[in-house]
Specification:
This protein folds into two domains: 6-209, DHBP synthase (Alpha-Beta Complex); 238-309, no CATH class. The chain is of the alpha/beta class. A hairpin with a 6-residue loop joins strand 1 (31-33) and strand 2. The chain has eleven helices and twelve strands. The chain is globular and about 55 Å long. The strands form two sheets. Strands 7-1-2-6-3-5-4-8-9 form a nine-stranded mixed beta sheet, sandwiched between helices. A three-stranded parallel beta sheet has the order 10-12-11, with helices on both faces. It binds threonylcarbamoyladenylate and magnesium ion. The site of threonylcarbamoyladenylate (TXA) has 28 residues, from strand 4 and strand 5. Residues 144-145, 153 line the site of magnesium ion (MG).
Length: 315
């Protein structure tokens, strides 16, 4: 029988980096952490001043709530007042993994995290370095994606450094994020539960786990800031195409246009999406031409990000 891997599962450099990250977080600092989805900009979720620094560093409005990241589902009860039956099913099946559950907040959760809402977003990320960081840190980490507000989420440590520079105290480099789009957010306080943001776990999978209970189209006012019309945008315009022929035609209609999403499977498209949007800006592309994938599996999340990247911007 195999036993739990000892901390020798980490190289001396990784071990030291995790310890350094813990020290900085305990001192109220900001650490960029790798997850399986995108890099997060983390602070001690119990420390209002540290959480406040996240909003300053990102340039994010204070009323946009943050996800609390925890080491494992056993800690869930510390952060929510009530684990609903649907949340229990989803947590059991999907954690660690790219799923965020919205649940009624526990008294412990500070207003700076929820923006004063009665709910809190909670997730157990699946990345070996961040799992160990959470374990050694002992508490919860409030973390949005580690990009400036409204820009493309970072999927490498270099993206974080390019975006946030000295505004982040330390970057825990865990390599490129394997999924590449953010977690799926499910509001478990709604009956039936609602997907507020499609992400790394397909809506169909969540639907199957809840045996068709899920309301996939949110009704009423949106409660996730990622639902803003213009978001996840590169500096250059993003043009959308419904099929490959149209995509190629739009791409060749003017010089300097970068074509993405043609000839790749959905997993690869998602993994490289944000890197390609950044690359377009780095290369000085005049526009990104993106093939809109079918609405299944990771296609839901890719479509959502593309529609937001292509939405009109008011500056
Ligand atoms: O994959 C992810 O979810 C990444 C990694 C770092 O975990 N995090 C992430 O965080 O994407 P952020 O802040 O960029 O997006 C979280 C979204 C925001 O739109 C926020 O408004 C929404 O979740 N959210 C968080 N807590 C909420 C709450 N209590 N009620 C409504 N929306 C909430
Ligand atoms: Mg974000």
């Amino acid at each position: 029988m195999s036993s739990v891997p000892p901390s020798t599962a980490f190289s001396p450099a990784e071990d030291a980096a995790i310890d350094r990250a813990v020290d900085i977080l305990r001192g109220g600092g900001l650490v960029a952490v790798p997850t399986e989805t995108v890099y997060g900009l983390a602070a001690d979720a119990d420390d209002p001043a540290a959480v406040g620094r996240i909003f300053t560093a990102k340039g994010r409005p204070n009323d946009h709530p943050l996800i609390v990241h925890i080491a494992d589902a056993e800690h869930l009860g510390e952060w929510t007042e009530r684990v609903t039956p649907s949340a229990a099913v989803l947590a059991d099946a999907c954690w660690p993994g790219p799923l965020t559950l919205l649940l009624p907040r526990a008294p412990r959760v500070i207003d700076a995290v929820t923006g004063g809402r009665p709910t809190v977003g909670i997730r157990v990320p699946a990345h070996r370095l961040t799992t160990e960081l959470l374990r050694r840190f002992g508490g919860g980490l409030a973390a949005p994606s580690a990009n400036r507000f409204g820009r493309v989420s970072p999927t490498t440590a270099d993206h974080v450094r390019a975006d946030l520079g000295d505004d982040v105290d330390f970057v825990l480099d865990g390599g490129p994020c394997p999924i590449g789009v953010e977690s799926t957010i499910v509001d478990c306080t709604a009956d039936p539960p609602q997907v507020l943001r499609p992400g790394g776990i397909a809506t169909e999978e969540i639907d199957a786990l809840l045996r068709g209970e899920l309301a996939t189209t949110p009704t009423g006012p949106s409660r996730a800031s990622g639902m803003l019309a213009s978001h996840y945008a590169p500096r250059c315009p993003v043009l959308l195409a419904g099929d490959e022929a149209e995509a190629r035609a739009i791409a060749s209609a003017a010089p300097g246009r970068m074509l993405i999403g043609v000839g790749v499977d959905l997993v690869t498209y998602a993994r490289l999406l944000y890197e390609q949007l950044r690359e377009a800006d780095r290369q000085g592309a005049t526009a990104v031409v993106a093939l809109v994938p079918p609405a299944n599996g990771l296609g839901h999340a890719i479509r959502d990000r593309l529609f937001k990247a292509a939405a009109d911007r008011d500056g």
